[in-house]
Write a structure and sequence with these properties.
mainly alpha; 77% helix
C-alpha cells in the first residue's frame, strides 16, 4: 500500500519527461483541423514572409512554454481532478504547437534555437507555482493566459493583412487562451499579487524579444 504513491509519482515524472521530449524533438500532431481560409490565397512579399515567420516563431515558443507549464502543474498538484484539468488544457495547447510548427515550415522559417531553454524555464516556473497551492497555481494560469491573449491580439495587428493562414491560426489561439483562462477562474483561481504579474510580463518580454530573432 505504501508503494502506490511512489509508483504514481514515478509515473507522473516519466510522463513529464516524455512530454518534454515530444515537445522539443518530435513533430507535433494536432487533434483539431488547423484553421484556414482556403478561399483566399496568401501572396506575401519576402519582407512580409520574414515578418510572419518571426511572429509565428514567437507564437511557437509560447506553445512550447505552455506545454512545459501545464506539465509541471500537472506534476505538482495533488488534486487528481485538477491534474486532469491541466492535462486537458495541455492537449488543447498541443494543437497550437502543431499549427504554429506547420506554419513555420510553410513560411520557410525555423523554430527558436533556444526552445530547450524556454521549456526548462517555463517548467521550473510551473513547478514553483504548483508548490504555492492549487488556487495560486490556477491564478498563475489565468494571468499567463491573459498575457498570451493580449500578446496574440498584438500579433493580429502586426501580421501582414494578406497572411490569411497565420492570422486564422492566431485568432483561433486567442479564443482558446481566453477559454483556458475562464476555465481556470471557474476552478478556483486566486488572483496573483501585482509584483508577480509585473515580473511575469517582464520575463515574457525578454522571451518574445529574443525568440523574434533566435
Amino acid at each position: 500500500m505504501k508503494a502506490q504513491p511512489m509508483t504514481t509519482a514515478l509515473d507522473l515524472a516519466l510522463n513529464a519527461a516524455d512530454g518534454a521530449l515530444r515537445t522539443l524533438f518530435a513533430k507535433p500532431r494536432a487533434s483539431r483541423t488547423c484553421p484556414t481560409v482556403p478561399s483566399e490565397a496568401t501572396d506575401l512579399s519576402p519582407q512580409e514572409k520574414d515578418l510572419s515567420g518571426a511572429l509565428m516563431r514567437v507564437n511557437h515558443v509560447g506553445e512550447v512554454c505552455a506545454q512545459a507549464l501545464y506539465a509541471a502543474q500537472a506534476l505538482g498538484t495533488r488534486d487528481p481532478v485538477l491534474r486532469k484539468h491541466f492535462i486537458k488544457a495541455s492537449q488543447e495547447e498541443g494543437d497550437h504547437l502543431a499549427w504554429t510548427h506547420d506554419r513555420l515550415d510553410e513560411l520557410g522559417a525555423r523554430p527558436s534555437l533556444l526552445n530547450p531553454l524556454w521549456y526548462a524555464g517555463a517548467f521550473g516556473l510551473g513547478l514553483v507555482a504548483s508548490r504555492l497551492g492549487d488556487p495560486l497555481s490556477l491564478g498563475f494560469v489565468v494571468e499567463t493566459e491573459r498575457q498570451v491573449e493580449a500578446h496574440l491580439a498584438s500579433h493580429l495587428e502586426r501580421l501582414p493583412e494578406g497572411d490569411h493562414e497565420s492570422r486564422a491560426i492566431v485568432a483561433q489561439m486567442k479564443d482558446d487562451e481566453a477559454q483556458h483562462a475562464r476555465a481556470a477562474e471557474n476552478s478556483g483561481a486566486r488572483q496573483l499579487p501585482a509584483p508577480v504579474k509585473l515580473l511575469m510580463r517582464s520575463a515574457a518580454k525578454v522571451m518574445t524579444t529574443v525568440a523574434h530573432r533566435i
